[in-house]
Design goal:
With 167 residues, the protein is an alpha/beta fold. The chain is built from six helices and five strands; from the N terminus they run βαβααβαβααβ.
Length: 167
């Protein structure tokens, strides 16, 4: 299989009426949104979806220990995490007419990719576009990452995955 060389052409001629673009902080986000726009039908919806990450393990661990001993050494930073994630969505959606930012909480599902699958099922999504990152060994072997792999195996609509290393 050849190297991915990007997408070009008419970005409003796709067959799907409601497309999800799964975005994160990676360089692949721009390519994901570009492809989602390309496969979206004229007048179709584009939902830009980000699954909010939780606090780092060390922060969670220290908070749990503090709580166990009658108080937490750390404050609740979930509002700060939500604000950062919302900021990412605003930046990604800026300048894209009709883009709908969607922030999902992974605690509402079994996992982060499951949150996307459930939201897509509940909202009539026709296609999901995501980037496959994978760990370095998986990238060398051209495997998909766990997030993208879960989407591909469990979504009830087509899933379009950009290969690892796409920017």
């Amino acid at each position: 299989m050849g190297e991915w060389s990007g997408y070009s052409g008419d970005v409003s001629s796709g067959p799907f009426t409601h497309v999800v673009a799964c975005v994160d902080e990676s360089p692949a986000t721009e390519a994901v949104v570009r492809l989602a726009l390309q496969v979206r039908a004229d007048g179709g919806r584009l939902s830009v979806v980000h699954v909010m990450g939780g606090p780092p393990f060390s922060e969670s661990f220290l908070a749990a220990i503090g709580t166990a001993f009658g108080g937490s050494p750390l404050g609740d930073n979930s509002a700060a995490h939500r604000e950062i994630a919302q900021g990412l969505l605003e930046v990604v959606c800026e300048g894209i007419s009709g883009a709908e930012p969607v922030l999902l909480d992974p605690h509402d599902a079994d996992s982060a990719p499951d949150a996307v699958v459930r939201w897509a099922d509940a909202n009539g999504v026709d296609a999901i576009v995501a980037a496959s990152h994978g760990d370095p060994l998986a990238r060398m072997a051209k495997f998909v990452g766990s997030f993208s792999g879960h989407l591909a195996r469990h979504a009830s609509c087509p899933v379009i995955l950009l290969p690892p290393g796409t920017e």
